[in-house]
Design a protein that fits this description.
Blueprint lengths: L5 H9 L4 H13 L3 H9 L6 H11 L3 H4 L6
Helix pairs in contact: 2-3
Length: 73
């Protein structure tokens, strides 16, 4: 059995990426863009070019036409 403190266990869990952070990292990796750029796409501050949109759509199996059709709000 490992010898860890309660704080050790907490800090290990705290260091793990959230599902949202993992999503951003995944999209950044497949599009070869930075995580900051992906966050800007998510916030509606920027929109990816057609190639990046097609890569994302293909990766997640969704229609490219609706991928970024949401309104900023």
């Amino acid at each position: 059995m490992e010898e860890k403190t309660f704080i050790d266990l907490y800090n290990e869990r705290k260091a793990m990426k959230t599902p949202a952070q993992e999503f951003v990292a995944e999209v950044a990796s497949i599009t070869h863009r930075s995580e900051l750029t992906v966050r800007m796409w998510l916030s509606g501050q920027q929109k990816p070019d057609a190639l990046a949109q097609s890569i994302i759509a293909g990766h997640f199996g969704v229609a490219v036409e609706t991928l970024f059709s949401y309104e900023k709000g």
